[in-house]
Specification:
431 residues; alpha+beta; Butyryl-Coa Dehydrogenase, subunit A, domain 1; Butyryl-CoA Dehydrogenase, subunit A, domain 2; Butyryl-CoA Dehydrogenase, subunit A, domain 3; four-stranded mixed sheet; four-stranded antiparallel sheet; binds flavin-adenine dinucleotide; oxidoreductase; AcylCoA_DH/ox_N_sf; Acyl-CoA_Oxase/DH_mid-dom_sf
Length: 431
């Protein structure tokens, strides 16, 4: 299989349209064609989304929004025209993100479909794979998931137990993946599987693309204490995948996986995602916090003002850091591993912001009334705040990557170096 690694730096080539002209065009189109986001809707993670029909209607609406952006030439700005994109630069994407702040946008499609999945397809997909899937993604016809974490653990991604065995022109996959957000309404997944048990763990992995409706894939939904049923666990039983749906070389899946995690860590600064300012669903995080303080009657309180200042500072520093790291990686002045710095900052900032929101609310943060405006559900968000430090690889793992691979500190001791994965001791749940 031929793979061609497309560099996101290509997106920095000379654009035909200046950023200023593009910005003006985007602003006019957005004002004319998109609704203002409802600040109370869908803010927060893993909340109870209500009835399944409502969630499916949101997904359909976001597919339509994506199609609208595509038809107007505002989808895939940093994707080359041959794959349905606009061939523009990250500066154009940032301008679009700014202009979309406060407007509805296809939030559920950004992560993981555009980052990391589109990033992985752009880097390792064959020409046929890219031509088949990237335009369909840009039109909102395909929503992608990532099958990385397994019930035996998610941090040690290279210890995947899901197995793929070659059978002629096909592969047969068996195993289980977990914590897949929204798999029940999605179309495709990138799946990391073990193709060789007789070599050390990083050397026996391969990546495949799977249609989620393929025979043998059972998607089970996990109900959280909050009532959310967004998380899924998938059971793969003799799932047959054609070799043409392999991404990257056989047993070289760690090369793909490393880049996959890079795109995941850079998701909020990815050239492929459209994330309105603040990165929240439809509005800036600081604006949301301002509304919480206002609705909690705390706006004139000097402590609240300090907290709002802190939130603003976090927002500004996070954005500046993300941009600097993005530029540094694009210009090769810093290593791709520096993406972990942005990932760490985004996890810590999001956790602190959630905590600030809860501090404003005092007692009504724990027991609210539907008339409490922006105060509603801050208590639930507070309980879920650690999510930002777990999803997309934990902040502990980001700290490991920064110390070992950015700062060059000694590597953590591991018991499996050089051992065939088959012989690595595993706990009972893994065997
Ligand atoms: C909102 C959300 C969405 C998610 N979406 C997806 C998804 O779409 N697809 C998917 O595949 N997964 C998804 N995940 C799963 C996520 O990637 C994993 O939860 C995460 O990688 C951690 O894996 P784990 O939960 O198995 O914890 P474990 O790997 O068991 O780790 C447990 C704890 O030990 C710490 N730890 C482990 N190893 C080390 C080490 N070497 N050094 C220091 N500390 C260590 C971890 O930081 C963590 O605190 C999602 C998670 C969340 C919260």
């Amino acid at each position: 299989m031929s793979t061609q690694q497309v560099d996101v730096r290509a997106a920095e080539s000379d654009p035909a349209e200046s950023v200023d002209s593009f910005r003006a065009r985007a602003r006019a189109w957005i004002q004319e064609n998109l609704e203002r986001a409802d600040p109370a809707a869908h803010i927060g993670v893993l909340r109870d989304e209500g009835a399944d029909e409502d969630e499916l209607a949101h997904v359909e609406h976001e597919r339509t929004l994506q199609r609208k952006l595509f038809d107007a030439g505002f989808a895939g700005l940093c994707i080359p025209p041959e794959y349905g994109g606009q061939g523009l630069t990250t500066a154009h994407q940032r301008a679009l993100n700014d202009e979309m702040t406060g407007y509805e946008y296809p939030a559920r499609l950004q992560s993981p479909t555009f980052a990391p999945c589109v990033g992985v397809l752009m880097d390792f997909g064959t020409e046929e794979q890219k031509l088949e899937h990237i335009p369909a993604i840009l039109r909102g016809e395909e929503i992608w998931m990532q099958f990385l974490s397994e019930p035996s653990g998610g941090s040690d991604v290279a210890a995947a137990l899901t197995t793929a065995v070659r059978d002629g022109d096909e592969w047969v996959l068996n195993g289980s993946k977990i914590w897949t957000t929204g798999a029940w309404w999605s179309d495709w997944a990138l799946c990391l599987a073990r193709t060789n048990w007789d070599v050390p763990k990083h050397r026996g992995l391969t990546v495949f693309m799977l249609p989620l409706k393929a025979p043998g894939i059972e998607v089970h939904r996990i109900e959280m204490l909050s009532g959310s049923r967004e998380f899924c666990q998938e059971y793969l039983t003799d799932v047959r995948v054609p070799d043409t749906d392999r991404v990257g070389q056989v047993d070289d899946g760690w090369k793909v996986g490393t880049r996959w995690m890079f795109h995941e860590r850079m998701a909020s600064n990815s050239p492929y995602t459209t994330l309105p300012g603040g990165g929240s669903r439809g509005g800036s995080r600081v604006t949301e916090l301002f509304e919480v303080a206002r609705d909690a009657g705390r706006l004139d309180d000097p402590i609240s003002r300090d907290l709002l200042g802190e939130a603003k500072m976090l927002d500004v520093v996070k954005a500046a850091l993300g941009e600097r790291i993005g530029h540094g990686i694009a210009s090769r002045s810093i290593s791709d591993q520096s993406a972990s710095i942005a990932r760490l900052m985004s996890g810590l900032a999001a956790t602190r912001m959630t905590s600030i929101g809860y501090e404003f609310t005092q007692a009504s943060g724990a027991a609210w009334d539907s008339a409490d405006g922006a105060v509603v559900e801050r208590g639930t968000d507070y309980l879920m705040q650690q999510v930002s430090c777990i999803a997309g690889g934990t902040t502990e793992m980001a700290r490991n990557a920064i110390s070992e691979r950015v700062l060059g500190m000694p590597r953590e001791h591991t018991h499996d170096v050089g051992l065939a994965f088959r012989d690595v001791p595993k706990n009972r749940s893994a065997t």
